## 1
Amino acid sequence: MSRFSPLLIILPFFSFSLLAQDSTDVYEEPILYHEYSECLREIFNAADSIKAESSEATEIHYLKENRLNCEQSSPVSRRISLRYLEWGDTVYDDKGVKEDVDKKELFKEGLMWGRIAVEEDTLNHLNYENLSMGFAAVISVSGLKGKANMADSVRIFAEKAIMLDPRNDRAYHILGRWHYEVSKLSWFTRMLSRVIFGESPKGSFERAINYFEQAIKLDNIAVHRYWLGMAYLESGNKEEALEQFTILQTLPLVQHNDQYFKDEAKKLIDKHG
């Protein structure tokens, strides 16, 4: 699993696929889990082997069976949440075919386990980051009322993650994507939100740009650069957008989907350059 969670490529929150591409071609060393206790390391290493040899469902079953074996259960609950979200992302929607299981139910399970992880450890920034992504996933398969109801939860929990750890570049990225997507919300969705809740979520491309820049300061990787370029493009600053897409071409391949973002940025350079 990449340091930059594969879920990252989540978003757009309101009409999205969690992963822009499959989680293959990973440019990274095997995970050693140094930050965890020996007990948790054993569980996660075993879970890695199970997932590699079998499936998300088998790994999730193993994690649930062993969740309370260590002093800390929160990291295991968070991983269960992540696996449900990743699994849901491999279930294609109406136009993508391949629906063996219910995508929405998998995302709901991911969100539920994200909540459990937070309840088990309210001071871990990763739990709030994961919960933010869980809401984003459920929103992506919800109707307009559900989107309006849950949209602000993505922002709230990403902000909580940053409050607990200002070095969390993924949470800054999520906030950037939140402002980017909210700024593109249709007038109808905004109106529905006002009718139901008395207000609508307020996003801005300017704030999206600021959050993506903060993420880049912490980790200059392709996904941050790509979405910074997209925010500039949507805000009407084509020159700055093309500069970001050009810089992206020079970055090394170190994360899931880096080549995908390079290819997409190159298409935009060719289109707008």
Note: Residues 144-164 form the longest helix (21 residues).
## 2
Amino acid sequence: MLLYFLIGILTLSGCSFFKQKQDPVPAVQSLLNELSLYKLDNQKRLHAGDLYEHSLWTHYAATALIEEKSPWVANFNFSKRDKELLSLAALLHDIGKAGRSDLFGGTHPTLQYRVAIDDSGKPVKITYTSDHEEHVAIGFDYLTDLWAPLEQGRQFFSSRGIPLSFQPLFTQLNVTLDEQKIVAILVGMHYSFGRILRGDMSFDDFLKELKRYAQFICYGAIDERLLRLAVLVQVADVTGMSYVKPRTTWIIQTPIDCSAVHRDVLSAYNYFGYNTSKPLTVFYELLAYFEQQKEY
């Protein structure tokens, strides 16, 4: 098992811990290469792009929320590092849709990856069906392998069946252990604010879920900053369901654009009503509810 872990580290890190930050850094590029293989098979789907495009669009959207002083970030002083951690969580938010051993191995009760290979046996396409919410907890587990008990942990597998660790990515991006916990929590929470808007989750349930993720990895007390970031990653996710213009970020210095076929799709942010007053009103009601509570 240790041998597999070391192989995974070397693979995801680009076989070196000692390279200077590149454009993008080796571990990020390795991850993007993996994500580019995944193609949704849903004909009636919410995302304009596939996993690769959606992850990039969500990353760009998260960066823009703070850089462009969106109404979602009003009345709070986010730091430069807050923006960076939010954008990293946005890039990784759907990672639980990929790399799943149960879908590669056919042991999941309803879902399975269909892997296409070329003449040399190299995987060139992985077709998958969206699992709705299952991937949220899986993504959290992928990013918390330092804290999860060995028998409970889930590990990301490459398209070639090699287990990969996300630690090299955090190392190359100079993400501390406490910051890694924040990123993992945001990935775990990226679906929850939308559930509040749909009426599927109460404010109290939202805060309990946030606390449960934090306690699992010994993060500490929940504060307003973490709560706001947990909502912002959802806003970025919705925005990234349709095309978002590329921009320079702390992770991707040279913006990566996508095929022009995706650029004329209607804005998902508008389609789901995030351009109306209701989501922001609910957001501030959630903040007010949090301020009234004592146990969090």
Note: Residues 25-292 form one domain.
## 3
Amino acid sequence: MKSLKARVGMMLLVMSGAGCTKAAVQGRAPKPTAAEPAAAANPEPFTATVNVYGALREIMHMGRTERRVDLAPLIGTSGTYGLGALEGLGGEVTLWDGQLWLSTPDGQGGAAAGKHDATTAGATLLVTSTVTAWQERLLEQAVPFAQLDTFIERAAREAGVNVEEAFPFRIEGTSTRLDWHVINGGKIPAGAHGHEAHMKTAVRGSLTGTRVQILGFYSPKHHAIFTHHDTNTHAHVISSTPTVTGHVDHVDVDKGARLYLPRL
């Protein structure tokens, strides 16, 4: 009888221990297996280094159009991209992989655009960044101008770029419509301020169904510095046929174009 009781007690003890072990396992996260690896932590978004010289608010409302940076040292610097305006608002500046493009009023209602291997000019506004590697995305549908800011922000976020800070981007492909201008500081009336006053005297033009290269900078925190108050982007265009470069006022990008974003 005593042996039977002992055996029953031992069985109850084992069953009790098994129940505790099962409960403990249920309350603990299972270890990952080779078939189900642990989820990797999200990496920190990449923040591009962007340099800014001058500010739109000072140009537009204070008439400060003096030289803020020399352009010559930037020529030939591989991976350097930038855009802005010449001192005195004498025209537009675009840097594409160390190549300097200038567009200035030709005095006959048009603009003279071209690449320069040397210059003594300076810029009153310039935004630059050095990008050593780009990541590419095919546009599977057309992007109208009204959706450009949203498209750039979403694509950059998906690509791991820090969209809370400024970063450069490129678009290469066909634009169904692109409106551009070249500032003409020599014709702005003395004392005239504001965007509208500057646009009244600018050289303006449009491209339709043209292959273009677009360089832009996106930022949610540089309004009135290098973007206007109603947009997060500032972009310039380079077109070979015809030869045009200038500030982009409107662009509808066609399906099949490619967006390039900086990569670490």
Note: Residues 2-26 form the longest helix (25 residues).
## 4
Amino acid sequence: MTSGQKQWLMKTNIFPKVTLVGAGPGDPDLITVKGVKSLKQANVVLYDALINRELLKLVPKEAKTIFVGKRKGFISHSQDEINEMMVQKAFQYGHVIRLKGGDPFIFGRGAEEIDYIESFGIETEVISGISSAIAVPASQGITLTKRGISESFWVITGTTLDKELSNDVFLAAQSTATVVILMGMDKLKEIVGIFKKFNKSEIPIAIIQNGTTKNEKIGVGTIDSILEIVETQKLASPAIIVIGEVVKHSVKLRAFYEVVASKNGAFQLYE
């Protein structure tokens, strides 16, 4: 912070701060208590596309709320513009909340934003959110680890900075771990091909769209059948891909995999 900025702050009595708040996977009740308290103290809220709009009701009426979301085919603001806006609004109004879906540090570019903000001497805080990678499978009774079934889990981005499929998918497909892929629907055909390459055609897979929300939809099957299920049921982003034996051990899904096994077919489930 420059000496000029310090003098300005003393004159205006405005103390800039930016808090990154994880909004959780979609259900507004899954935000943390600390996140709720922070929203109630906001002067400005910059919110993403996937946050539940019900959370904005927690913001003081006099506070400003600004949509800065990005969706496939639509970007309201570039990341550089968002970074600049957080700093500008913090100096102008005080406490800025950056409300992000899931957890800010799980493929949320939170670390980049913190680095930029702190370069201006602005105080920052991070309030973790419940990651969709864990909460969305759990909403369908899918435990990512289970004794004797899965000793670990991978959480992988489906699309890298270069718009390519992460090489980690190749490594994960060779393990016995549960594999959770975020932002991977556009790469599903490639993902399926990789798992087939490593003789995993019969591995259970679940695709959960709009998880934990009233619009939630799920398709379950095997690596061998999932592309047909996705096409038939028109499953699309935003969705979580969960691959592993734990899928068929879900209390909610177990009976349906018994049907699949007995009929050697595919099954589609709606919630």
Note: Confidence is low (pLDDT under 50) at residues 265-271.
